[in-house]
Structures are given as structure tokens and as C-alpha cells.
Design goal:
CATH architecture: 2-Layer Sandwich
Strand content: 25-35%
Helix content: 40-55%
Strand order of the largest sheet: 1-5-4-3-2
Number of strands: 5
Largest sheet: 5 strands, mixed
Mean pLDDT: 93
CATH class: Alpha Beta
CATH superfamily: RelE-like
Structural class: alpha+beta
């Protein structure tokens, strides 16, 4: 098993999602698939697809000083973005964003339909 952490922003998002899930079916669904992917990352750090460096948004470079970005499709609509940090002895996945498909395409410079 590997470590998987949430960025500060994602920790807040996760807490909010948990509280909304009690009364909102859409939030409950997103929480379930989000947490399932976190568990998947704990087993396989490279469970997602690595994004080309030229596609890394400046926002992530400035805010998180990332050198790599990975994404996992939570389902057809939602994407989870993470980075792998650490050294040869200890690597950790840090989840930095959860976006809907259209927002993900916009942020990463892909054409949307």
C-alpha cells in the first residue's frame, strides 16, 4: 500500500462533499467514486494516465510546484488530478483537483465538444 494525501483545497472539498452526501444523491455518488479512486491509487500510484508536461496548467505549477500530473477518470463526467511527490525511498500521491470533464478539458487545453 502507498500513501495518498489530499491537498488543502481537496481536503475542504472532501469534507464538504461528505456533509452534502447525507442529503444529496449526486454528492453521495461523487463521494463514493472519489473515495474508490483514492483506494485504487493507494494500491497503484500510477493508476491514472500521466499528462504531458506541456499540458500542466500554470496554476498547478505556481500553486503546487508540480513536476508531474496524473489524472484518473472517476466516471464519464468527473476527473481527479494528482501528482506523485517524494524521493526514491518514499513516494506519495497528492490529489490536487476534482473537475468535471468540460472543466478538465478547458484547464488542460483540450478542445471540448
Amino acid at each position: 500500500m502507498h500513501d495518498a494525501l489530499l491537498s488543502l483545497e481537496l481536503s475542504k472539498f472532501h469534507a464538504d462533499l461528505k456533509s452534502r452526501a447525507e442529503r444529496d444523491g449526486d454528492a453521495r455518488y461523487l463521494l463514493r467514486i472519489f473515495e474508490k479512486c483514492i483506494e485504487k491509487m493507494k494500491v497503484d500510484r500510477e493508476a491514472g494516465k500521466r499528462i504531458q508536461k506541456r499540458r500542466i496548467p500554470k496554476e498547478y505549477l505556481n500553486k503546487f510546484a508540480v513536476t508531474n500530473i496524473w489524472k484518473i477518470n472517476l466516471d464519464a463526467r468527473w476527473r481527479m488530478v494528482y501528482t506523485i511527490v517524494g524521493d526514491e525511498k518514499s513516494l506519495v500521491c497528492v490529489v490536487i483537483d476534482v473537475l468535471d470533464h468540460k472543466e478538465y478539458d478547458r484547464k488542460f487545453g483540450y478542445n471540448t465538444s
